[in-house]
């Protein structure tokens, strides 16, 4: 069972190789306001490709708000590069090689392969399901959404509106209460 991350608390470490060289180390050079971390299933997922195309289209809007954007999967390097090419990435940095242990620390669900997908690409033996996180420059969780399936993900246009609201109202992260209920 995945771990539940708590808003206003530190997120797990994230240190992954980038498809264009170098590494993304969460917290080493944070975005001005947030890091948007988008965990995707992998090259085999046609819904991920469509989702990441929208993220790439809106990347300048995120950057204008002081948000740096990363898409990451547990795919190997070649598949990570192929997804980056598929979405013609320039505003979104793509990383690969997310360990399943790290995926679990982030609260992501893990699925086992069911063979080839509808686009004829073999699923990895094990891979993580989607997750979207906004992390503050201090390394604490602001927003998080995880899913058990590729369907009905948070929409990036909605997330931009939420970021605008959070910035204009200095709105705090919510969901941090852990006391008795």
Please provide a written account of the structure.
This protein has 181 residues and is an alpha/beta fold. It has helices at residues 46-64, 77-86, 100-105, 156-169, and strands at residues 15-17, 23-25, 34-39, 67-72, 93-95, 110-112, 126-128, 131-135, 141-146. It is globular. The relative contact order is 0.23. The model has no long low-confidence stretch (mean pLDDT 96).
Keywords:
single chain, 181 residues, alpha/beta, Glutaredoxin, 5-stranded mixed beta sheet, 4 helices, 21% strand
Topology readout:
Elements: E1 15-17, E2 23-25, E3 34-39, H1 46-64, E4 67-72, H2 77-86, E5 93-95, H3 100-105, E6 110-112, E7 126-128, E8 131-135, E9 141-146, H4 156-169
- Assign the CATH superfamily: Glutaredoxin
Major beta sheet summary = 5 strands, mixed
- Indicate the mean pLDDT: 96
Ends distance: 22 Å
Structural class: alpha/beta
Just name the CATH architecture.
3-Layer(aba) Sandwich
CATH C-level category: Alpha Beta
C-alpha-based Rg, rounded: 16 Å
Give the ordered list of helices and strands.
EEEHEHEHEEEEH
- Poorly predicted regions are none
The number of helical runs is 4
* Residues in helix, %: 25-40%
- Please give the number of β-strands: 9
Widest β-sheet, arrangement of strands: 5-4-3-8-9
CATH level-3 fold name: Glutaredoxin
Strand percentage:
15-25%
The geometry reads as globular
Structural domains: how many: 1
């Amino acid at each position: 069972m995945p771990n539940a991350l708590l808003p206003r608390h530190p997120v797990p470490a994230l240190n992954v190789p980038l498809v264009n060289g170098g590494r993304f180390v969460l917290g080493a050079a944070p975005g001005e306001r947030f890091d948007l971390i988008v965990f995707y299933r992998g090259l085999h997922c046609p819904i991920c490709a469509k989702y990441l195309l929208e993220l790439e289209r809106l990347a300048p809007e995120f950057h204008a708000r002081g948000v740096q954007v990363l898409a990451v999967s547990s795919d190997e390097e070649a598949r990570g590069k192929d997804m980056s090419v598929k979405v013609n990435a320039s505003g979104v940095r793509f990383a690969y090689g997310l360990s399943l242990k790290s995926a679990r620390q982030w609260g992501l669900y893990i699925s086992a392969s069911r063979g080839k997908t509808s686009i004829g690409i073999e699923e990895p033996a094990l891979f993580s399901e989607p997750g979207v996180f906004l992390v503050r420059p201090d390394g604490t969780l602001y927003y998080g959404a995880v899913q058990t399936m590729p369907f009905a993900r948070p929409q990036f246009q909605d997330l931009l509106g939420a970021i605008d609201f959070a910035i204009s109202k200095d709105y705090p992260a919510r969901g941090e209460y852990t006391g008795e209920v």
